[in-house]
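ok so for the tutorial part 2 we go from a plain amino acid sequence to predicted structure tokens. step 1 is just haveing the sequence, like this:
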Amino acid sequence: MNIRGLLLLLVLPLIAISCAKDDDDGSSSNGYCYIKSVTLGNIQRQVGDLSTTFSGSYYEMTINLREGTIENRDSLPYGSLLSSVAANITFEGSSLQYRAKYGDGQWTSYNSTDSLNLTQPLELYLTSGDSKSSRTYTLKVNVHKQEGDSIYWKQCEEIGTEHITGLTDMKAFVKNDKLMVLGKKGTDFLLAERSGLDARGSWKETAVTGLPSGADPQTLRQHEGTFYLSAASGEIFSSTNATDWQQTGTTLSAGLTLIEKTDKFFYAISESKLLRSADASTWEEDKLDSETSLLPTANIRALTVKQANGSRRIVMVGQKDSETKHDVVWNKMWNDGWKSYEEDATWIYFLVTPDNIVPCPNLQYFNLLAYDGKCIAFGGASADGKHVALDVMHVSQDYGLTWRPSGLIRMPSALRGVEGCIASTVDENNFIWIITNSQVWRGRLNKLGFAQR
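step 2 — the prediction. this is what the tokens look like for a chain of 453 residues:
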């Protein structure tokens, strides 16, 4: 390194921490005055009738020496009370004073035992050790304006929905940034296509070709740009546009319900057996840890989730019969290349024990979604009579073992008790879409919509 480069490296730290001289001659001073760190103390939080306390130290305060600003990039939780907050400020200099940023209030000497009013930005005035220079900072504490664990719902178009009116067996999905609904009107299959994923949109419908009358839209699965679904007569059909369908593989000799499509296998239930196939032509029984008599027989729903450790898991839910008060749940988990492979993984039955008071509910028009790292379920009225249609979301954080009615992730109140076919999906912007009885709603957990700073 040459002499010029070495001198530059020595000068830069002095530029970063030296203060502006109070004199008007513009000359520099070797007096140091800079804030080293700011740490918030305990903070009260009030949400409705619930009052809690959390440590502000978990929210790092970032100091920008060039701009003279101090703020937290990760906003404090909604409902944080900032009128009286202790803050530990460490600095290099002789004295630190503060006052409200906007106004001409009196300066107050900082003491670490002070409780600061941080509802508005503070102006900090720091004097160097030799009292010849100073630096001014703006301290601002950011707080989320919405409850992160609540969903804000909005009803979308209320007119122009005639293309989804009267659809039965609806299955919703997203393709090319558009909301799609595959369903039946009478004996005909139709695809209703929305103009986009904005709050307002318009619909059009397209006739569907290539599907027999026994095809089941609820079995529709998407994999790498191709759609698959099954028919009661034993066939699997595929399509790249969801309108033109053709048979894939061979017809099974018995009825077939497609469960899931992964990179390696098709999974299906037929004659009370859980089958898999690499090509939809040659089928074999997959491994179960329990009796086949415990497999679901109707209203089967499934999803594949990726866990934080890289493992993949298929969650399968379905009815044993329409009178049973809860659905049955099965899981299959693997992590290719690390301890387990998909072809070797066993399906595990989640036994419902007497101490599990929140098993998966048996709901009409059962909808199952993966959302915010959890499984959520909702639908029509429950078989046990405890729930009316669309009154609550049932949330499972353990991949289907327990399903608790959520007090935070709430359904739109206007949908409570609305009967009829229900379809739903999640788009790439984390919006949940619900389509029922000619109504279109979308909602998102507030925290999933917060801008990343």
